[in-house]
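Appendix C. Worked example: 3-isopropylmalate dehydrogenase
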Amino acid sequence: MSKKSFRVVILPGDGIGPEVVAEATKVLEAVAAASTDIDLQLESHDFGGCAIDKHGVALPDSTLQACKEADAILMGSIGGPKWGVNSKIRPEQGLLTLRKALGLYANIRPANFASDSLLDNSPLKPAIAQGVDIIVVRELIGGVYFGARKESGVAPDEDTAWDTMIYSVSEIQRITRVAAQIALAAHPPLPIHSIDKANVLATSRLWRKVVTETLEVEYPQLKLDHHLVDSASMLIVASPRKLNGVILTENLFGDILSDESSVIPGSLGLLPSASLAGAPSVADYKSANFKATPGIYEPIHGSAPDIAGKGIANPIGTILSAAMLLRYSLGLDIPARAIENAVRVVLDNEDKGGHGLRTADLGGNLSTKVMGAKIVEVLKTLL
Ligand code: ATP
Ligand code: MG
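Step 2, the predicted output written as C-alpha cells:
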C-alpha cells in the first residue's frame, strides 16, 4: 500500500521558538518513522523577526505560499525586543497577515494537567484544580475586534470613542461546527458550554439562538448548556471542573477566558494551541471523506527573550501542539494520544534522586533537549 503523504510546514520563529520547535519536530519524526502508512514531509521556512533580518519582511512570499499549500503548520513564537514597537516592520504584522490569508477563524486552547504531579504549580488549590479539562474554542476574526470604531479626539470637541460588535449567522454557525467536531474528537464526546452575555447584548442573543439551533439540528448527540460570561469567569476559578468540556465563545470573551483558564495548569510552557480555518474532520485519514484542514499549531507562550539561547525553555507546549496538529489537521488521533501519554509518563517519573523530571519553569533543571529526548524515548515505546 502506498503511504499517505502530508506536508507540514515548520516555522521556528524567534527567541526560544527554534529551541522548542526542534524538540516537537523530533516528536513528529518519531511518529512518521514508526508508521507504515503515513509519510510526513517536514519543511522549515523563515517567519517573524528572523525573516525581517534575512529578507526585510516578516512573512516572505515563499513562506506564505508554502503555508497555503501545507496540510498543517507548526510554529514557534515570533517577535522580541529587537523588533519592538518602534520598528518599522514588526513580526506580529506578519502573523496577522498569515492568519488572514489562511482564514483562521477558530482558536483552540486546551487547559488541563498533563500530569497530576503538576497540581502543586497551579494557583488554585489542588482539590479545585484536579481534573480540570477545558478546551476553549474562540471565534477569532469577528466581533468587536473587527467592527468599525472611532477613536476619541478626532475633532477637537469630540470626547467619545466607540467600537462595534457585529456577528452574522454564518460566522456563528461555522465556529459552532468547529466546537462540535472538537467535542466529537474526544471519546466519549465532550459537552459544550456556550458563553455569552445574552441578558445585555444583541449579538449574544443571536449567538445563543444560532448555537442552540445548529447543535440541535446537526449534532443532536452533543450536550449543550449556556453561561453568562460574568458567571463563567467566576466558575473557572471557583469550580472549574463544572466547565470541563468545550467552552464555545466569541472573540472578546474568548480572549479573556482562554487566558484565565490557561493559568490553571501553572506554567505558560505547558500549553498548546491551534488556529483553524475549518472544522476538523473526526474521520480517520484513511476514510474516504477525510480532508486535511490546514491550521497553525503553536504553544501559547511568547518568544521568551529573557531565556532565549539558554537551552532551558520548556518544550512541552510545542510538543503538545504537534499532538493537536496530528489529531485535528491530519486525522491521526492514535499517535496524538501516544504523544500526550508520553508527556504524562515523563512528568510522572522521577530521577534517581527522587526529583521530578522538570524544566526550570517548573522548578527542575532539565534542559530543553533532555526533556525533548526523554519524551521521544517514551513515545517510541508507545507507538
Ligand atoms: P508575547 O510574546 O505573547 O507578548 P509575553 O512576553 O507576554 O508573550 P512570554 O514571551 O511567553 O510572554 O514570556 C513570559 C514569561 O514566561 C517569561 O519570563 C518567559 O521566560 C516565561 N516562559 C514563556 N514560555 C516559556 C517556556 N516554554 N519555558 C519556560 N519559560 C517560559
Ligand atoms: Mg514576549
